[in-house]
Design brief:
Elements: E1 8-14, E2 20-23, E3 28-29, H1 41-52, E4 58-69, E5 72-75, H2 78-85, H3 94-98
Antiparallel strand pairs: 1-2, 1-4, 2-3, 4-5
Length: 99
């Protein structure tokens, strides 16, 4: 029996700046909270195909599993949590915004 589909977001790295970005209904964002949450497997596959084809904007696009907490996407894996908050060597960028 196939595993049930769980909510996901499309994530990648910005080609020129290297930042972690997330797909929205209208483009890309650096904030996981603003990402388009995909709850349908076929729709998620189409959105991923769309992201992969944007070679002039992103690199390494894939589907990341999330859960919804208080209506906001939250990573289910520590790797995605790390990517959402940025480098851990010192507080800068996204880390400053989150605290």
């Amino acid at each position: 029996m196939p595993k049930p589909f769980t909510p996901k977001v499309v994530t990648a790295n910005h080609l020129l700046q290297g930042d972690v970005i997330y797909q929205t209904a209208a483009g890309w964002t650096r904030r996981l909270q603003d990402a388009e949450v995909l709850t349908d497997e076929a729709d998620a596959d189409l959105r991923l195909i769309d992201a992969i084809q944007q070679r002039d904007v992103v690199v390494g696009a894939y589907l990341a599993e999330i859960t919804l907490q208080d209506g906001l996407p939250t990573p289910t894996h520590f790797r995605e949590d790390f990517r959402a908050t940025g480098p851990s060597n010192y507080a800068h960028g996204k880390q400053v915004e989150l605290h």
